[in-house]
Specification:
Number of strands: 12
CATH superfamily of the largest domain: NAD(P)-binding Rossmann-like Domain
Radius of gyration: 21 Å
Number of helices: 13
Bound molecules: glyoxylic acid
Number of domains: 2
CATH architecture of the largest domain: 3-Layer(aba) Sandwich
Order of helices and strands: EHEHEHEHEHHEHEHEHEHEHEHEH
CATH topology of the largest domain: Rossmann fold
Strand order of the largest sheet: 8-7-6-9-10-11-12
Distance between the termini: 23 Å
Largest sheet: 7 strands, parallel
Oligomer: single chain
CATH class of the largest domain: Alpha Beta
């Protein structure tokens, strides 16, 4: 008998076809937003789950789903998983590292440039029919080339952004991270390690690329924003909750910093109402990894993890490998 799995969100039809070769598949191609109780009901009798960042896998769910052996997230971030609870329950967790690194770094860079050069604000102005003549200071923003790029969180995506800045745009790149990179990697990235307060004070453009954890909650709040330059931009492509969105909206209104570019939000898909009313912020709906080839590669890796573990006993990118029996 084939193992049973749940695909909890809509996915590429080719990926469903692949999964159906190995599993009895229940899928959610209508992309219904399930409550936690509905997710538990759908998971009954399932050994595997193909999840995205919008399904919370916690102790309560695991207790109610005793057949579950693996949750394969189609995301590199996995703060929707209670990893300790999954390990305690013997449930394997997998994510999709590497395949999205360059695409996400491209987006971080694009969002930084759109923010620094006021692209969204000026486009809204044009569409509203307000453009009557050229003016010497119209939508004058800040330069990206030759400026100081600050990166908070220096994993794979942070490093890929650093390389773009240092080698492509002649930027001075500084970073802060829980652990310092070794000298060879710092040289390859063209990046120098600094304290968090030096990062805040020196960056012209500060990009957040750290994973969400309780310690990272509101890592950027009113006190941190106050340390930044009034001409600085802040870019968040990491996770909602790392920035205090209410404090950021206030800082943007007051001119504490010049502008922000956000792809992720506290409590998304809701967006703090004050962010919707300030002009100097570029807002995108959590799309940093969204190119067709990259989303396909992420879905393929999540599927390969399910097949690898449930069919062959060998997952490709396990987060809690201690669960895999030797
Ligand atoms: C997207 O946010 C991801 O974690 O892959």
């Amino acid at each position: 008998m084939k193992p049973s799995i749940l695909v909890a969100r809509a996915v590429f039809p080719q990926i469903l076809t692949l999964l159906e070769q190995h599993f009895d598949v229940t899928s959610n191609q209508d992309d219904v937003v399930w409550s936690p109780a509905q997710l538990i009901a759908q998971l009954q009798g399932k050994q595997g789950a193909f999840t995205t960042g919008s399904q919370r896998i916690d102790a309560e769910l695991l207790k109610a789903c005793p057949d579950l052996k693996i949750c394969a997230n189609m995301a590199v971030g996995y703060n929707n998983f209670d990893l300790d609870a999954m390990t305690a329950a013997g449930v394997l967790a997998t994510n999709t590292p590497d395949v999205l690194t360059e695409t996400t770094a491209d987006f971080g860079f694009a969002l930084m440039m759109a923010t620094a050069r006021r692209m969204a604000e000026s486009e809204h102005f044009l569409r509203a029919g307000l453009w009557n003549s050229w003016r010497y200071d119209m939508f004058a923003g800040s330069d990206v080339h030759g400026s100081t790029l600050g990166i908070l969180g220096m994993g794979r995506i942070g490093q890929a952004i650093a390389k773009r800045g240092a080698h492509g745009f002649g930027m001075k790149v500084i970073y802060h991270n829980r652990s310092r990179l070794d000298a060879a990697l710092e040289a390859a990235c063209g990046a120098a390690y600094v304290s968090k307060s030096d990062l805040l004070q020196q960056a012209d453009h500060l990009i957040l690329v750290l994973p969400y954890s309780p310690e990272a909650h509101h890592a950027i709040g009113a006190a941190e924003l106050a340390q930044m330059k009034p001409t600085a931009t802040l870019i968040n492509i990491a996770r909602g909750g790392i920035v205090d969105d209410a404090a950021l909206a206030a800082a943007l209104k007051q001119g504490t910093i010049a502008a922000a570019g956000l792809d992720v939000y506290e409590g998304e898909p809701k967006v703090h109402p004050d962010l919707l009313t300030v002009p100097n912020v570029v807002l995108t709906p959590h799309i940093a990894s969204a190119t067709m080839p990259t989303r396909m590669a992420m879905a393929q890796l999540a599927a390969d993890n399910l097949i690898g573990y449930l069919v062959h006993g060998k997952p490709l990118t396990p987060l809690n490998p201690q669960v895999v029996k030797a």
